[in-house]
Every structure is written in C-alpha cells, then in structure tokens.
Amino acid sequence: MKKNKTALITGITGQDGAYLSEFLLHKGYNVHGLKRRTSLFNTDRIDHLYQDPHEENRNFFLHYGDLTDSSNITRLIQEIQPDEIYNLAAMSHVGVSFEMSEYTANVDGLGTLRILESVRLLGLEKKTKIYQASTSELYGKVQEVPQNEQTPFYPRSPYGVAKLYAYWITVNYREAYNLFACNGILFNHESPIRGETFVTRKITRAVSKIVLGLQDTLYIGNLDASRDWGHAKDYVRMMWMMLQYDKAEDWVIATGKSTTVRKFIQLAFKEVGITIVFEGKGKNEKGIVLKCENPLYKLSKGKVVVEVDINYFRPTEVDLLVGDSSKARNILGWVPEYDLKDLVKEMMECDLVLMQKEKYLKKGGFETKNYFE
Ligand code: NDP
Ligand code: GDR
C-alpha cells in the first residue's frame, strides 16, 4: 500500500496555511504545522481541523516553533521527515515592515535560509521538496506590465527586500545542492479569512459595519494603488501543483487583471446595493453615497463614508501590479475558479454575518466584559 505523504507547513495559522491544510488533508496527507507561542489563542483559522492528542489515527499535528529559531526548525524537520515543506511563515504586512525592518529581514529572509540549510544538514535533499512563498512585491517599482517570471525585480519595502533574499537563496540552494525548491511568485490573494489589516478585508469589514450603523467612516490610504487580486483557495492549489511537477522551477500566479483600491471600495458597497462616487483630490478625496437601493440600509444620498488618512500611506509605494501567469496556466493547467466579483461577494457575505452578530450582541447587552472596571 502507498504511504500517505507528510507535509510541514510554516505559517499554518495564517490565511494560506489554513486553506493549504484543508487542501492537503483532503488529498490524504499527514499535515504538520509550525505555530508560534502567543499569550492568546492564534489558531482561529484552523480550529475546525484540530484533533485531540488522544485521538487515534491523527493526521493533523501542531508544533510550537518560530522561524527565528534554527535549532527548533532543524529538530522539527528531523522528527517529521517531511516529503514537502511549505514555507508560508512571514511578517507579511508590507506597511508594518517599515516599522519592523530588522525583524522582517530575520523572519522573511533568514527564516527561509534556516529551512533550506536544515534540509541540507539533515541530508534530506533527495526526500524533501520545498515551496517558498515568494511575492509580487518583488517587482515593486513598475518597470513593465504584465509581470512574469522574467520581469526584473525592484522591491520597495523592507518586506520586499527580505523576500528578495528569500527568493534568491531558494534559487541558490536549488542550483548549488540540487534541492527541489520552488518559488511561487504569488500576486495578492484574499478571502473571508484574510488578516483584518490588509486593505481588502479592512474594506469589507468597514462597509459591513457602516451599513449596519456600527461605524461611520472608512479611513483609507492610497486609493490609486492597483492590485491583481485573486482568491486564496485558487492559489494554495498552485503551491501543491508546483511541487508535483517533475522539475523545481519558479512560477507566477495571478489573475491578469488589476483593480484600484478605489474601485474595490465601490465594488464592496455595490454588493450591498449602494453606489459610491469619489470627489476631490489627493488627501481631500472622499467617497460619497450617490444611491442606496437596499431598503435594509438607511444611508442617505450625500453621506461621506470614505475619507483619506495619510497615515496609511507608505514611504515608498508599489503602484501597479498585474501578473502574467501563462507559464503556470500552460504547463500546470491552472485555471482559477474565482473572479474578483465572486471574491468580493464572498468576503462581503461573511463580514456582514460577523458584523450582524456583533450588532446583536451589543443590542442584547452581551458586549465583552471589561475586566478592569
Ligand atoms: P498571514 O499574515 O495570514 O500569515 C502569516 C503566518 O506566518 C502566520 O501563521 C503567522 O503566525 C506566521 N508567522 C509570522 N512570523 C512568524 C515567525 N517569526 N515564526 C513562525 N511563524 C511566523 O499571511 P498569508 O497567509 O496571507 O501569506 C502566507 C505567505 O505568503 C507569507 O509568507 C506571505 O508573505 C506570502 N504571500 C502572501 C500573499 C497574499 O496575498 N496573501 C501574496 C504573496 C506572498 P501568527 O498567526 O502567530 O501571526
Ligand atoms: P500588499 O497588501 O501591500 O499588496 O501586500 P495590502 O492589502 O496591505 O495593500 C494593498 C494596497 O492598498 C493600499 N492601501 C492600504 N493598505 C492597507 N493595508 N491599509 C489601508 O488602509 C490602505 N489604503 C490603501 C496599500 O498602500 C497597497 O498599495 C500583500 C501582503 O499579503 C503581502 O504579504 C504579499 O506579499 C503581497 O500582498 C502580494
């Protein structure tokens, strides 16, 4: 009988880690995940997969660890002997990386080296395949569009620069030691479990709160930034497909369509029957209600619901990303199942439910107890 494959996922508690765990478990893998010790639970996204240590035939395991801790990583890889490692762990917020540049370099750059070096030290070069979570942030300053595997890199943030190191050290270990190590150059991908401070989720949460009367205004940064947004579910499938291909290579994954932050806000409001227009320029630009066609929501014409806050601007910005994933589409046969409309719809549906819950709790007097009173 064929033995089930074993995968190790770093960053298992994040958006992609959760979708990838689901995907690999359905494929019959034993899934091991690295999770950080935190003072509050950080496993919300994977709680439905948790298996009690006393259960028999477990196939989902969590281990404490951190990408800054080499001995921890080496020991875990030695114990788990993974067939595949998906290195998804990272300080993944571009804006925050300007505040925490050294830490970002340590985790996102050196963390990748620690994994590659452990696999080499343990003599697992022939057994263990590695997926490195590379990013469209590598392209940074627009030099050409659409961006493909040959487009030169010009990162524009400490996050992008750290990921550039990770990209090249992955290529170097592949060439120097014959490791099966791939870079997935993934463009932005979102979902209802996207972190709340990334712009799409910030928007769908705020729009849901605004229509339910829980918040007045969405404060936002650069409305002109344009991103190639796909659905995380479609993208984690590709991580796996890259490791099943007979050669270790680098792959761009993207929808090929770019949309501005401004347009994303309009799409989110449209999803609940509200038309928004933007007026003014630069930091004085505002999003104003033109029409509210949903009888459930009482937003009057002329109400200002979006305002620009320059604190959300970045010292250096990536203006335009649009990916050309024809290599993955032609060779691996990738066809995304979601388009932007499906994505916005799903995110809005989920956030509306969450915010309705919040509203009912507030109304019923069940707000979280203040322990400091
Ligand atoms: P998330 O921010 O949702 O998840 C990041 C994960 O990394 C979390 O599990 C987090 O743990 C963990 N982590 C952070 N720091 C450390 C550390 N020092 N040691 C161990 N684990 C750590 O990111 P996504 O799921 O969206 O992205 C996954 C990967 O793909 C990241 O590397 C990201 O940079 C990259 N990427 C993402 C894209 C996207 O659009 N989503 C596009 C291209 C690349 P905790 O839960 O405790 O915070
Ligand atoms: P990004 O995603 O930087 O592309 O990195 P994010 O959603 O943070 O920003 C996208 C664009 O929106 C602009 N923006 C704002 N961003 C945030 N977060 N908050 C705001 O209020 C706001 N207003 C405007 C940003 O300036 C930017 O131009 C994501 C991460 O998942 C990375 O880990 C990943 O590598 C890349 O996608 C591909």
Automatic annotation (TrEMBL):
Organismal lineage: Bacteria, Pseudomonadati, Bacteroidota, Flavobacteriia, Flavobacteriales
Listed EC numbers: 4.2.1.47
Residue ranges of every copy of the NAD(P)-binding domain listed in the record: 8-347
Reaction(s) this enzyme catalyzes, per UniProt: GDP-alpha-D-mannose = GDP-4-dehydro-alpha-D-rhamnose + H2O
Name of the featured protein: GDP-mannose 4,6-dehydratase
Annotated GO biological process: 'de novo' GDP-L-fucose biosynthetic process
CDD domains: GDP_MD_SDR_e
Gene this protein is translated from: gmd
Role of this protein: Catalyzes the conversion of GDP-D-mannose to GDP-4-dehydro-6-deoxy-D-mannose.
Keyword Lyase set for record: yes
Native source organism of the sequence: Planktosalinus lacus
Residues making up the signal peptide according to the UniProt record: none
Keywords: Lyase, NADP
SUPFAM superfamilies with a match to the protein in the record: NAD(P)-binding Rossmann-fold domains
Superkingdom: Bacteria
Family: Belongs to the NAD(P)-dependent epimerase/dehydratase family. GDP-mannose 4,6-dehydratase subfamily.
GO MF annotations, alphabetized: GDP-mannose 4,6-dehydratase activity; NADP+ binding
Cofactor: NADP(+)
